[in-house]
Amino acid sequence: MKGLLRKDLQLIWASWPILLMILIGGTAISIYVKEPTMDICFVTLLLVFQTVATVMNDQTSGWYPWELSLPVSRKNMIYEKYILAMLILAFGLILALAIYYGVSAITNIAPDRFSLEINLSILLIFFGCGVAPAILLSFYKKETGPIAMIVAALLPIAIILIIMNTVSDANIKEVFMGIGAISMLIYFTLMFLSPKIVTNWLDRSL
């Protein structure tokens, strides 16, 4: 599994100039609009979605069928993507918080704990209800990659909009934090179920 993690991290690192330009652009926008909290989700999700991109790359490059012949179990091959996403989530969150406090200092806007907790909850919703099913769907067929990316974006957005339109301002933070916790449960549930689901898909295709 370490070899697979290294391969994917190198694959993500290969696109660092593009990622850096997007990060600089996003940071500049947050400074311009004086909204440092937007970096929490923007920066972290930008990096985490690269995990889904690695699955799509495996499918389109022809690596995925060949990967099945390696001395690595299918379960570990699939777990590796979810572990990769969690590692990038941790790194991205540290980077995002550093940028957040930096932008707050530049714009003279004091860090807002309420907005910070809301944005962290939104991040978890995207992670559990967007990234997790997107990783799973990307394993189905290479044609499902774009669909997986759409699911990764639209499903969490739908959940967030429902919360914002149905929950009162007095309770919105608690609801977001609760849904964020549930989203992480969904993430780990899909992570542990994915090997069996993907194996069934592969057996049907043989």
Give me the secondary-structure topology.
Layout (H helix, E strand, L loop, with lengths): L1 H12 L2 H17 L5 H24 L1 H5 L6 H34 L5 H26 L6 H22 L5 H34 L1
Assembly level = single chain
End-to-end distance, in Å? 25 Å
Domain count: 1
By DSSP (H or I, 4+ residues per run), the number of helices equals 8
How many extended strands? Answer: 0
Secondary structure category: mainly alpha
Shape: globular
Beta-strand portion reads under 5%
Helix content: over 70%
Radius of gyration equals 18 Å
Can you summarize the main beta sheet? none
Keywords: Membrane, Transmembrane, Transmembrane helix
Transmembrane segments: 12-33, 40-56, 82-106, 118-140, 146-163, 175-193
Organism: Dubosiella newyorkensis
Pfam families: ABC2_membrane_5
Descriptive terms for the model:
206 residues; 84% helix; mainly alpha
Give me a quick take on this structure.
The chain is mainly α and 206 residues long.
Task: Describe the overall structure.
The longest helix is centred in the middle third of the chain and has 34 residues. The protein is mostly helical and 206 residues long. The protein has one domain. α3 packs antiparallel against α5, α5 packs antiparallel against α6 and α6 packs antiparallel against α7. It contains eight helices and no strands. The radius of gyration is 18 Å and the shape is globular. The model has no long low-confidence stretch (mean pLDDT 86). This is ABC-2 transporter permease. Pfam families: ABC2_membrane_5.
